[in-house]
Amino acid sequence: MPSRKFADGEVVMGRWPGGVLYYELQVTGYDDSSRVYTLKYEDGTELELKESEIRSQSSFKRRKSQSSSGSPSRRRTSKVQSRSPGRPAKGRRRSSSQGRDHKDDKEKTIQLVLFLFKLSENNTRRYNGEPDSTERNDMSLVSVERNLEPDLEIEHEREEKKTKEKIFKTTKTSSKTKELEFGGRIGTFALIFFLPATVFYLLLMCKQEDPSLMNFPPPLPALESLWETRVFGVFLLWFFLQALFYLLPIGKVVEGLPLSNGRRLHYRINGFYAFVLTAAAIGILLYFQFELHYLYDHFMQFAVSAAVFSMGLSIYLYIQSLKAPEEELAPSGNSGYLVYDFFTGHELNPRIGSFDLKYFCELRPGLIGWVVINLAMLLAEMKIHNQSMPSLSMVLVNGFQLLYVVDALWNEEAVLTTMDITHDGFGFMLAFGDLVWVPFVYSLQAYYLVGHPTAISWPAAAAFTVLNCVGYYIFRSANSQKNSFRRNPADPKLSYLKFIPTATGKGLLVTGWWGFVRHPNYLGDIIMALAWSLPCGFNHILPYFYVIYFICLLVHREARDEHHCKQKYGLAWERYCRRVPYRIFPYIY
């Protein structure tokens, strides 16, 4: 592969996107695979250009000197200019006062064009998702407009409109997924089979008297025993009951982050109300002596039903995504490869009318279902072991995980800024994760305790509770600090926070939790996951699968966040990494 032509820090002449004019820029980065340079204007605005769109200053000066020695008409028609966008091409001589007036107009036009470019760039970046590093947007349309006069020439306005259209056109055509995750086409194809197999393996192991790894593989049940139409009907009833709660006209309606076309989708925030209504419905069923431990008796069949439903939903989503406009496709699932796009999700926000399928599945059927399953396991433990009260271990697991779910539903609006909503499409990965992995793997500790009761002392229970509270405090306070700073960075309550400004007009927090490690919310997640597993004892590693999985998942997400932030913030992100060297675990990683 040929070596790069321009070095970092070198000042070059770059062509304006979609135009023919060249301007002075500084090289800040280079992508070896695509041979695309990241460059920065004098005011901090960044853009990406191919090598063919960049010229060295020396070659530019030679062209300029050659053109200046030619005829006047030749000078006027030269395409290479050293000035910024918006300069009108006029050949007549002006008086000194006219020249000054034109220069003022030209400078105003520069400001407007750079603002339009930055506005387009910021909208695209929000669309691509916000990693966990907190940002601040200091760009203000009002401050720009104050520096502009309404009496710009018609030629300037036409040039600005034309430039804006070119910028948005360039933004939309660059939404093709270039970097494939999860092992690319082969990796995603394997995961479509590996993920369901992992869920069924874990559930089968929990049913064994000795669920140690030495007993692999567990005895496989008969295929006909894995499916029951009645169970599938109960699952459908649960799914559509949550859909009904989602459609109720209760709770506030908020706007999501801007899409690539500048449009904002509306979301109704009523997840906590749905949880309360679900709790009331479960209470009524228990009052009429409905046997909730039916879930435990048919747990594997429910998992199979959920997996079948998620696969059917994924197929529907992919077929529907083929009709979606280009600007509505997910930046992470628009590779052009069927299997990869099917797995990661081809469309960003698939909807049936105003019903947002991805947002609904993110918090409702699986997350609330997780709590219901835990309750069913608690009742099953009492019945199987003839207990009048559930074990202390089961109470701790139920209580810790209930706190986590209630917190997520109470702070439902915060999910709108996560990468699941802003960046990832809705395909098999999220559909299976929301409807199968969350309710049936996250409830693994409660399911394990039914068949393998573990007695713990009150001091141990107190220690586990403290550990969970510490993890929850880190998780919640870090997320609250981030969300508050995003909503209103000028809040006097946040005046103690310091940040590093970036070329995007935003800032990276370097104090508070985000100055402690780069992803403090991940640290809180891992501590809580450990607290959930400890009540299961140390006889087997199976209850700690969730901790191991969670660490691997968060390390993967952290690596993805690092990659996105480095591309987005360039030199500012390098400064931030030097200021905050630890990623998740202080003094370790």
Automatic annotation (TrEMBL):
It catalyses: 4,4-dimethyl-5alpha-cholesta-8,24-dien-3beta-ol + NADP(+) = 4,4-dimethyl-5alpha-cholesta-8,14,24-trien-3beta-ol + NADPH + H(+); 4,4-dimethyl-8,14-cholestadien-3beta-ol + NADPH + H(+) = 4,4-dimethyl-5alpha-cholest-8-en-3beta-ol + NADP(+); 5alpha-cholest-8,14-dien-3beta-ol + NADPH + H(+) = 5alpha-cholest-8-en-3beta-ol + NADP(+). The gene is Lbr. GO terms for molecular function: Delta14-sterol reductase activity; DNA binding. Its EC number is 1.3.1.70. PROSITE patterns: STEROL_REDUCT_1, STEROL_REDUCT_2. GO terms for cellular component: endoplasmic reticulum membrane; nuclear inner membrane. Keywords: Cholesterol biosynthesis, Cholesterol metabolism, Cytoplasm, DNA-binding, Endoplasmic reticulum, Lipid biosynthesis, Lipid metabolism, Membrane, Nucleus, Oxidoreductase, Phosphoprotein, Receptor, Steroid biosynthesis, Steroid metabolism, Sterol biosynthesis, Sterol metabolism, Transmembrane, Transmembrane helix. Signal peptide: none annotated. This is Delta(14)-sterol reductase LBR. It is found in: Cytoplasm; Endoplasmic reticulum membrane; Nucleus inner membrane. Belongs to the ERG4/ERG24 family. The keyword Ribosomal protein does not apply.
